[in-house]
Write a structure and sequence with these properties.
4 helices, 5-stranded mixed beta barrel, 305 residues, 3 domains, OB fold (Dihydrolipoamide Acetyltransferase, E2P), PH-domain like, alpha+beta, 15 strands, 27% helix
């Protein structure tokens, strides 16, 4: 039985954490930032580019449209005197676009244009080796085929980040779903076993649930309370002098019996649906010190008219 009481206290601690997190503005912002971060990392996934990770050795003369969207390693000399610059007309004005540097192969008349972006520092007369993506130009402001200097993206790392982001997003969603479910239970987590031995001395009654509009719908959990009744109303009143509150029960609609996890171990409890003093339908959970006390309180509530 001691092990069951330890489990009950562990579940109560979990419910208490959910309760505090739900009411923490900082926790809400952390959840939002984690969700945004995880969504952002999923954008790193690049499954369609796995085949483009191989850098193929090529010569200037061999590069053609068949190399489109392929990374190549090519050696040649950059002809800075033969720079090609695209242009397009805007009415009576001509607007210059990007410029491209021919990469020529010594001893050959062949050449391929290289976008003048990210080019390494080089001696104009020396040969350079470039790693670049073969790009097929589009429109009149790009050449038909050119090289865009740059190494292929690290798909392994990108997809690892995307996997981490997806996993983190699932974890955040599961945590949010669990927190929502615990809140729906009024932070009173049911236990699957009956109460035979009370873990340690506890207050006569504990209250879990909202306090109503007169208390700005404040939510309490595991708060010591006392039970008072008249022929027309039952009241669950605070026993904590630091925070006075009261819950009125004018008509008990239903009571679901179960055992609840509390700081004192497992206690007999009842999930109540009732009408308050304004005729509004409310719900909440009471936990009692014993089965007999729970039965006595519910019997009194059922007699109220």
């Amino acid at each position: 039985m001691a092990a069951e009481q330890r489990v009950a206290r562990l579940l109560d601690t979990f419910a208490a954490v959910c309760y505090r997190v739900r009411r923490s503005a900082l926790a809400r912002w952390v959840f939002i930032l984690l969700a945004v971060f995880s969504l952002g990392t999923t954008l790193f996934a690049r499954p369609s580019q796995i085949e483009n990770q191989t850098v193929r050795d090529a010569t200037v003369n061999s590069i053609s449209a068949s190399y489109r969207d392929t990374y190549v390693r090519v050696t040649g000399r950059l002809d800075t005197l033969g720079i090609y610059r695209t242009s397009y007309d805007l009415g009576d004005l001509s607007q210059y676009g990007k410029q491209y540097v021919p990469l020529v192969e010594p001893g050959s008349a062949g050449a391929v244009l290289v976008a003048d972006e990210g080019l390494p520092t080089h001696d104009p007369m020396a040969q350079v080796t470039l790693v670049a993506l073969v790009v097929q130009g589009s429109g009149s402001n790009q050449p038909p085929l050119f090289l865009q200097v740059g190494y292929p993206p690290n798909v392994v790392i990108a997809n690892a980040l995307a996997h981490i982001g997806t996993t983190l997003l699932l974890v955040v969603l599961v945590l949010m779903l669990v927190a929502w479910a615990v809140e729906r239970l009024d932070y009173a987590i049911p236990l699957p076993w009956p109460v035979n031995v009370i873990g340690q001395p506890s207050p006569a009654m504990l209250w879990f649930g909202e306090l109503g509009r007169q208390y700005n719908d404040a939510m309490l959990r595991s708060q010591p309370a006392e039970f008072n009744a008249t022929p027309h109303e039952a009241r669950i009143d605070s026993r904590d002098p630091r925070g006075l509150w009261s819950v009125s029960i004018r008509r008990l609609k239903s009571a679901q019996l179960f055992e609840v996890a509390t700081p004192y171990g497992s206690l007999p409890a009842a999930r109540l649906r009732f009408e308050d003093e304004r005729g509004l339908l409310r719900k909440g959970v009471i936990a009692m010190q014993s089965l007999e006390a729970r039965e006595a309180v519910l019997r009194v509530m059922s007699l109220i008219r």
